[in-house]
Request: fold
Amino acid sequence: MTIASPLSLARLACLGLVLTAAPTMLGHVDADSRLTAFGHTISDYAVADLHGPVTAGMYLAAVASLALLAGLRRMRAPVTRAAAWLLASWSGFLLVAAIVPTDPLGVELTATGYVHRYASAAAFVSLLAACRLMSRSLRADARWRDLSAPVQGLTLAAAVSGLAMVATAYFGDRVLIGLAERAMAAFAVASLVLLALRALKLAARPAPRFALAV
Reply:
């Protein structure tokens, strides 16, 4: 079994996506005392400990998502070309956001900060659009059909959380912006975890054996 086999890719995707939360949570421990999980974004924590655990979690999510996409394509899962491009875009934009940090708390946003902001926004818009398209295309395949409704529900919950984040950022003085962002991220990544677990289950099935005619 090679690293590019569907089973290896599914394992990598599952492991990476499930473990993404660990370094992110670790980055919240002993962080800047001015930061709170409810009132500040994940990016605020990442820049407070530049290239620390939170940034590592972003890299892990991006790589795991690419592994998932590759695995789904190898398995001929019902993923449209548009959904595949959007899922790849999510990973690409997330890598940009990890490489280019936002500005520290209390500092006026610079060009670097704007790059990070719009890369992060583009990443989640791409992911939500990809999940929405996949929730529809999954219905066409009996192996994946039962995941259509859960993926659609999680995508809707992520979209509502994202709208709440935008609303508080522009109209609500950023009250509970951290809570809204974390809810959005959790719901969106949960959709990918569901797909990765199903991919792992299908890839781990033994190949059918055919009796030779005598």
User: Anything to note?
Assistant: The CA atoms of residues 139 and 146 lie 8 Å apart. DSSP finds eight helices and no strands in the chain. The radius of gyration is 19 Å. Residues 111-137 form the longest helix (27 residues).
